[in-house]
Every structure is written in C-alpha cells, then in structure tokens.
Automatic annotation (TrEMBL):
The lineage of its organism: Bacteria, Pseudomonadati, Pseudomonadota, Gammaproteobacteria, Oceanospirillales. Its main location: membrane. Belongs to the methyl-accepting chemotaxis (MCP) protein family. PROSITE patterns: CHEMOTAXIS_TRANSDUC_2, PAS, T_SNARE. It comes from Marinobacterium mangrovicola. This is Methyl-accepting chemotaxis sensory transducer with Pas/Pac sensor.
Length: 528
C-alpha cells in the first residue's frame, strides 16, 4: 500500500461495496504500483490490474485510495509514515479492496522514489503473504479497531526471563527444603549473572546481525505481525524478511525492466528488420531509378542532338526561303518588265496597224489613179490610132503609160495584199500581246502569291528555328538537371546502402539486446 491511501480518516463514509469474499493470487506473483507524492497512481503492472478488478484506465491518474479497504485502521500506518518521511522503506501486511467489494491480503514493501536526492514518489511491490501472517494481522487490526493497545507486553517473553523464572522456582524449593542461605544467594547471583550475560549477548548478536544487514527495516509491529517469536528474534526475522522483500522488489522491478527491454528489443528487431527490408527495396528502387534516369539522360542527349539538327535545318530552310523570296522578287520584277514590254509592243503594233491602214488608204488612192491613168492611156492610144502617122509616137507613149499604169495597179494590188497580210498579222500580234499581257498579269499575281507564301514560310521557319533553339536550350538545361538528379540518386543510393548496413547493425544490436534481456531475466529467476 502507498501513503496516498493511508491518510488518517476518522469516521470515513463507506460509499463503495464491501463483501466477505477473499480474492487470492499465486504465490510467485508480484503486484507493482507507483504513485506521485499526492498518492496519484502513475504506474501499475497487469497483475495488480487483474486482482483489483479495475481497468488500467480506471487506475492511472486516480488516487490509490481507490483500493483501500475500510478494515485497515489508519493507526496501523503511523510507523510507515515515519519510515517513508525519513526516506526509508516500510514493510507490512495490508488488506485491499477489489472493485466488486471483495478483498485480498498483501505483504507490501514500499520504498521512496528519489531523484537528485529528493523524494518524488513511492513504489510498492506486494507479494502473497503466508496465512499465519494474515491471521496475526487480522487479530492485531481488530484490536486497533476495538480501541485496544498495540503494546507488546503481552507477547512471549525472552528466553532469559523464562530462565529467571525457573531459577526463582528452584530457589523457592531450596528454601522450602531448608537449604543454606548461601546456596540460595549463590544460585541467585549465578542466575542473575547468566541472565545479564545472555541479555548482553543477545543484544550484541542482534546489533551484529543488523549491522551486517545494513540499514534494514525493523519494527515491533511488523515483528508481531510476521512472527510468533519474542521481540528480539522477531526484529531480526523482520529485518531478514525486509531484506528478502527488498531483494524481491529489486528483482521484480528488474524482471519487469527485463521484460520491457525484451519486448522493446523484439519490437525494435521487428522494426529494424522491416526497415532493413524497406531499405533493401529502396536501394533496388533507387538502382532502377538511377538506370531510368541514365536512359532518360541518353534520350535527352539524342533529343538535344535532334533538336539542334532541326534548328540547323530550320535555319537552312529559312535561308533557302530567303533566297527563294529574292528569286521570286526578281521574277516578279522581270514579269513586271515583261508586262510593260508587252504593253509597249501592243501599243507599237497598234500604231503599226494604224500606219498600215493609212498606207492601205493611200494604196487605194494610187490604185484608183492607176486605173484612171490606164483608162487615159487607153483613150490616148485610141486617139493616136485615129491620128495615123502623126499619132504613132503618142501611141507609143500612151502604151508605156498604160503599161506603167498596169504595173502600178499590179504593185498596188501586191501592196494591198501585203498590207492586208500585215494588218492580219498586226491584229494577231495585238491579240498575242493582249494574251501575253493577260498571262503576264496572271503570272505576276501568281508570283505575288508565291512571294507572300514564301514570306509566310520564312516567318514560320524562323519561328520554328526560334522554338528549336529554345527547345535546345531547355533540353540542355533538362540534361543538366538530369545529371544533377542522377548524381543525387547515386548519393541516395549510397545513403541507402549505408542505411542498409546500419539497419543490419541495428538488427544485430536488437538481437544482442534481446539476448541480454533474456540473460537478465534468467539472472532474476536465478536469484529469486
């Protein structure tokens, strides 16, 4: 039991169930609990939870009074307070209450918990008491509840007292039988000397035993509770029992710590194994990622080369488009000049046609004159024939004139035919010039359209070239980033390998810790 449940309460109201049923627990089981200075439970083991009937949640954070039984008199723990306040352990028999009202007896060993020399709480390790000890404790606590004294005068006297009583009886018998007074005095002196020597020897033995056991617990009430022997021997037995209880408490706590260490080591080993497996998988994944990044770097290099080639081809296409644009510009100028020339030819042909028409008109006039001249020559020849000899020379002249007129008429016909042919050719030339002009106009329009298309192509190619350059720069940057990522992944892979080695070391360490915990547990079992 702990101090928080031993506060002095007189006339305490019982507002919880109490039965006459006793709950028991195995001999080797230890009930462990800890409280702060105010008696609030901060720790309890499963055995204490099981026997109390409460849940762990119902116990932690609650006052230890929750398991106090009303049959326990507060006066029974006055000595306990003295020991605990002095920073010393206390041992005693305590009756506790279960949640359902049943009760159970424990042999409690309570020690102060110190930090930096200051008491910060209390820890109790309880074991199953012997039935004889329980019977004595029930009688003692009943006397307290009845208001009777806990004095020890009524308990069995020391052996020297019995010896003195026997000597007194022998002296009385000798006196009754008429023995000399000297014999009686000698017997009495010897008896007193022996009793004194026995007393001193017993006290010296007790002190020697107590010194050997160090600062061991020894209390008259505990001596009465735990033994039927006289006080001297009872104190020694209680001191031994307290040492055993102290050792059991230490071993119990060591056992609990060993169990916790073993549980933690098992959990740590499981975690380490899982971490080791995860690190192995991570290392494999990192290797695959590194390979993928390497392939990506190669692909990026190929893409970079292709983009660079595309940029160069785009620049060449832009140059070709510029050259084509210049050629089309020259073609447009040439067609424009041709169109102008065709227009000039058309105009010249039209002018020639006009001049030819004038010539044709003049030829018609000449033809008319030739016909009239021919008629005049014919009339002159007729008149010369009428004149006879006198008109013969005139007839010759008239004949020549008529012949000249006929030749002129024939020439005018030929000229007329030539002019007619020339006029037709001029008209065809005008038509051809018109067709050529129309074709030149159409060609010029096509050239202009081609020039516009080439300008658009040139602009598009320039845009493609610019985008290709930007893509090349981006791919180059991506390649650098990929190299950095590859380096980082390699570093991560190295770290994963190192973590894997550390995980293996951690697993081995957890296994060693588990072995140490098992050895510690075996030591605890060996020394219990």
């Amino acid at each position: 039991m702990l101090p928080g449940m031993f506060s002095r309460v007189i006339g305490m109201k019982q507002n919880f169930p109490v039965t006459t049923n006793e709950a028991t627990f195995p001999q080797g089981t230890k009930l462990v609990s800890s409280t702060d200075l105010k008696g609030v439970i901060t720790h309890c083991n499963q055995a204490f939870i099981d026997i109390s009937g409460f849940t762990k949640e119902e116990l932690l954070g609650k006052s230890h009074n929750i398991v106090r039984h009303p049959d326990m008199p507060p006066e029974a723990f006055a000595a306990m307070w003295g020991y605990l306040k002095a920073g010393k352990p206390w041992m005693g028999l305590v009756k506790n209450r279960c949640k359902n009202g049943d009760f159970y007896w424990v042999s409690a060993y309570i020690t102060p918990v110190t930090e930096n020399g200051n008491i910060v709480g209390y820890e109790s390790v309880r074991s199953c008491p012997a039935r004889a000890d329980v019977a004595r404790a029930e009688k003692l606590y009943a006397r307290v509840r009845e208001g009777k004294s806990l004095g020890v005068a009524g308990y069995m006297p020391a052996a020297s007292t019995w010896f003195l009583l026997v000597v007194f009886v022998l002296a009385a018998v000798l006196f009754y039988l008429g023995a000399p007074l000297g014999s009686e005095l000698l017997l009495a002196a010897g008896t007193l000397g022996y009793a004194l020597w026995k007393k001193v020897e017993s006290s010296r033995m007790r002190q020697s035993v107590m010194q050997l056991m160090g600062n061991s617990f020894s209390d008259d009430l505990a001596a009465i509770s735990y033994t039927d022997d006289n006080l001297e021997l009872g104190r020694i037995k209680v001191a031994v029992l307290a040492q055993q209880a102290h050792l059991n408490a230490v071993l119990t706590r060591l056992g609990e710590c060993a169990d916790q260490v073993r549980a933690e080591s098992l959990q740590g080993m499981d975690i380490a194994l899982q971490a080791q497996q995860t690190l192995g998988e991570q290392q494999q994944e990192t290797g695959r990622v590194s390979g993928a990044i390497g392939e990506m770097s190669s692909t990026i290099a190929e893409v970079s080369a292709n983009v660079q080639d595309t940029a160069e081809k785009s620049e060449q296409a832009r140059s070709f488009a510029s050259s084509g644009s210049a050629v089309i510009e020259g073609t447009r100028v040439a067609i424009d000049n041709l169109n102008s020339t065709v227009r000039d030819i058309s105009e010249s042909v039209n002018e020639l046609a006009g001049e030819t028409q004038v010539i044709a008109e003049a030829t018609k006039i000449i033809e008319v004159i030739a016909e009239q001249t021919n008629l005049l020559a014919l009339n002159a020849a007729i008149e010369a024939a009428r004149a006879g000899e006198h008109g013969r020379g005139f007839a010759v002249v008239a004949e020549e004139v008529r012949n000249l007129a006929q030749r002129t008429q024939n020439s005018t016909r030929e000229i007329h035919a030539i002019i007619e042919s020339l006029t037709q050719r001029a008209e065809r030339s005008v038509q051809v010039a018109a067709d050529g002009n129309a074709a030149a106009e159409t060609g010029l329009q096509r050239v202009l359209e081609a020039e516009e298309t080439l300008h658009q192509i040139q602009s598009s190619v320039a845009h493609i070239a610019q985008m290709a350059m930007q893509m090349a720069a981006a791919v180059e940057e991506q390649s650098q980033v990929s190299d950095q990522i590859n380096g980082q992944v390699a570093q991560i892979s190295n770290l994963a390998a190192r973590n894997l080695e550390e995980g293996e070391e951690s697993t081995a360490s957890a296994q060693r810790m588990g072995s140490i915990a098992n050895e510690l547990n075996e030591l605890v079992v060996r020394f219990k």
